[in-house]
Amino acid sequence: xxxxxxxxxxxxxxxxxxxxxxxxxxxxxxxxxxxxxxxxxxxxxxxxxxxxxxxxxxxxxxxxxxxxxxxxxxxxxxxxxxxxxxxxxxxxxxxxxxxxxxxxxxxxxxxxxxxxxxxxxxxxxxxxxxxxxxxxxxxxxxxxxxxxxxxxxxxxxxxxxxxxxxxxxxxxxxxxxxxxxxxxxxxxxxxxxxxxxx
Length: 198
Description:
mainly beta; Immunoglobulin-like; seven-stranded antiparallel sheet; three-stranded antiparallel sheet; 52% strand; elongated
């Protein structure tokens, strides 16, 4: 295969991103693995994870027609804002042989960022995507993996509190003078004040 033709081909390989949990809270670290599966040898220049938070809000504006003076119509469009964009390098140059290679990663969700949201006119989406830059060839990208992000995790997901209950059995004995029941630990009868017999 010629150099130019080879430069326009992808390696016979695929990459997937796996995260350690299904849901994360703001302030937590997203931990996971970028897995590379290859059927051939090639040289890697860089392996990285792209971590993003995009907010889209539906907006409306008046748009005038060029052919009609004074005639306007309402146009709907989506305004996009990027709250987070991290490009985390998890490996530098290396040679890839046929087989499977795992690249662990960890990236923090900063405090103060918005949580995941979906409504008719607003969305906030957190995503992580793997990327492998290949020497002299086209690079590889994984599917964009959406990560649900919440303000705080529910109580059930946190460590449960252990409550210890102590139950003691109290033995009751009758007073030898009036017959009133009293605890075995008492020294005198609560009714007639007589001393407890031995």
